[in-house]
Specification:
Blueprint: E1 8-11, H1 21-26, E2 34-39, H2 51-60, E3 65-70, H3 74-83, E4 88-92, H4 99-109, E5 112-117, E6 135-139, H5 155-167, E7 173-177, H6 185-190, E8 195-198, H7 200-203, H8 208-225
Helix pairs in contact: 3-4
The structure holds D-xylitol-5-phosphate (DX5) and zinc ion.
């Protein structure tokens, strides 16, 4: 599979209509990946869906899946999402017992391996294992819900992680998720993000296609300013 170039825009289907998922997936066909938020009511205080639903989303989506697991015990559950064909599977560092072994397993199955950290988790915990990952997700809200405000204090951590990754020769993608909109995307791009999740800013727009194009444009401009 040829991989989409940066800046990548990944709409979060957490803001889609869950009973019209096929139609709402078709509406984001011009985006890069469909961002799929799996929540278990334990790691985060919200519940979405599990592998059975994601398997149908995988069969239905016009674009590849970027699965974001906000669940306990990803060591046990994450490989199943790679096996059902998700292009990318991201688990939380805070929840994993053996992040390196899990990343290797995901890559062996054929998926990109991603690791996520919450706003309060330091980035340096990842420095020595950056090589094991294809994507690092720096959460820009507390995980659990769409429609929250972007936390700008996460930006220095993102910049430091990107610098450390490049210093070590890693070409991992850097993703931001939470509160990404026309008003915030440029500062995340300037801090080094190249992959942008947006839920309410995409699904809440009058024209989804225009919203995706607008976010891409502003991310490009933010990257040039940095
Ligand atoms: C939040 C999820 C996000 C969420 C983002 O825990 O991980 O993917 O859908 O929604 P917005 O873009 O509305 O902040
Ligand atoms: Zn997410």
């Amino acid at each position: 599979m040829s991989l989409p170039a940066a800046p990548r825009i990944n709409p979060s289907i957490l803001s889609a209509d869950f009973v019209n998922m096929q139609a709402d997936l078709a509406r984001i066909a011009t985006a890069d990946f469909a961002h799929v938020d799996v929540m278990d009511n334990h790691f985060v205080p919200n519940l979405t869906f599990g592998p059975q639903m994601v398997e149908r989303i995988q069969a239905t989506s016009p674009i590849p899946l970027d699965v974001h697991l906000m669940i306990d015990d990803p060591d046990r559950w994450a490989p199943g999402y790679a096996e059902l064909g998700a292009a990318s599977v991201t688990f939380h560092l805070e929840a994993a017992s053996d992040p390196v072994a899990l990343a290797r397993r995901l890559r062996d199955i054929g998926s990109r391996a991603g690791v996520a950290i919450k706003p309060g988790t330091a980035g340096d915990a990842l420095y020595d294992i950056l090589d094991e990952f294809d994507q690092v997700l720096v959460m820009t809200v507390e995980p659990g819900f769409g429609g929250q405000g972007f936390i700008p204090e996460t930006m220095p951590k993102l910049s430091a992680l990107v610098a450390e990754a490049r210093r070590r020769g890693s070409n991992a993608w850097f993703q931001v998720d939470g509160g990404i909109s026309d008003a915030t995307i440029a500062q995340a791009a300037a801090a080094g993000a190249d992959t942008f999740v947006a839920g309410s800013a995409v699904y809440g727009a009058d024209s989804i296609e225009a919203a995706i194009a607008g976010l891409r444009e502003r991310a490009r401009a933010g990257n040039l300013e940095s």
